[in-house]
Specification:
The chain is α/β, with parallel strands linked by helices and about 325 residues long. Helix content is about 50%, strand content about 10%.
């Protein structure tokens, strides 16, 4: 059996991949192998996806190790995981796998109005500059789950496609526990060796404003490191969904109504809805400039900037010293 986890983004994928990598040895005791080839010193198999289009100078030969690893342990459930597979050609993936056994293609799906807000925030955290409306107009395909899943179904068969909801009963699921259940493993018997870690949090709207303004400066920095240096200062800075009004969210879902109907009919096997109904709720509280929380956020952001500058100055000084050394 091969289980290929293809995404999507912002559905607990990084936490899942970190769990699988950290607990790989324990999982092998239960007949599950998180394939080592294709993820050297990484949590996920992003390099396999990159190699298909030659991204980041990744050679296609990296797949040789994957095929060899599967061949050496044929009676094991093998797992590959990367959101990058979502964007790749399933025909090419199947060719590179060279695998004729049973396959599950697992995709976690988040209702599009929530998904697109969280995804946009991730782009800003990574250093992008666009405002939300401009970005949203440029990426209508990102919410079109059906087109991607249908392409995988053509190659691997509709029965191989496993759609999983990111929300149940109004709450985000435990993606790790849910994924393990697909492998017939109870999470309780595989204690996480890295508990309590948060991966890829989304910044609340007020912090997003500061981050996007900062990105306009075109600095050559590690944006991910800087982002986490701000986020770690207060847990209140984490929030995924606060950019769209009810009417705007309704418009987003109307755009993908046919897509979601098709996914439900073809790939969703349960009686409960794949996505929760949209509720007419007010936006969460947004801090104004007069609020003490907004002032503290400003202080924390400036502290992170000063720390960044101090670190860059130290690096520059050390380089000059090293250059002068005999």
């Amino acid at each position: 059996m091969l289980v290929l986890h293809i995404g999507t983004h912002k559905t607990g994928t990084s936490a899942l991949q970190a769990f699988l990598a950290a607990n790989a040895e324990a999982l092998q005791q239960h007949g599950v192998r998180y394939i080592e080839a294709g993820r050297p010193k990484r949590l996920a198999h992003h390099m396999l996806a990159w190699s298909i289009r030659g991204r980041r100078n990744t050679n296609i030969s990296i797949w040789d190790g994957v095929r060899g690893e599967i061949a050496r342990t044929p009676d094991t459930t093998h797992v590959l995981s990367s959101e990058g597979f979502w964007f790749e050609d399933p025909v090419r993936v199947k060719e590179l796998l060279g695998y004729d056994g049973p396959v599950k293609i697992v995709a976690y799906l988040r209702r599009q109005d929530q998904f697109l807000q969280s995804l946009y925030k991730q782009t800003v955290a990574d250093g992008r500059k666009k405002d939300f409306d401009t970005w949203l107009a440029d990426v209508p395909h990102r919410g079109d789950y059906a087109t991607v899943m249908n392409a995988w179904a053509v190659v691997f068969g509709a029965d191989a496609i496993v759609a999983r909801p990111y929300q149940r009963n109004g709450e985000n699921i435990d993606t790790i526990a849910d994924f393990l259940s697909l492998l017939n493993i109870d999470k309780a018997i595989v204690p996480d060796v890295r508990p309590g870690t948060t991966y890829n949090p989304s910044p609340r709207r007020e912090l997003l404003h500061f981050l996007r303004a900062f990105n306009q400066l075109n600095l050559k920095i590690d944006y991910e490191k800087f982002f986490h240096s701000v986020m770690g200062r207060d847990k209140a800075y984490k929030r995924s969904i606060d950019l769209l009004t009810y009417e705007q969210r309704r418009a987003v879902l109307d755009r993908y109504e046919q897509c979601n109907r098709e996914i439900t009919e073809r790939y969703w096997k349960e009686e409960i809805p794949l996505f929760p109904d949209l509720q007419d709720k007010e936006l969460p509280t947004i801090w104004s400039q007069d609020d003490p929380e907004y002032f503290q956020l400003t202080v924390h952001f400036l502290e992170a900037v000063v720390k960044l500058i101090s670190g860059e100055v130290e690096i520059a000084q050390k380089r000059r010293q090293d250059a002068k050394a005999p």
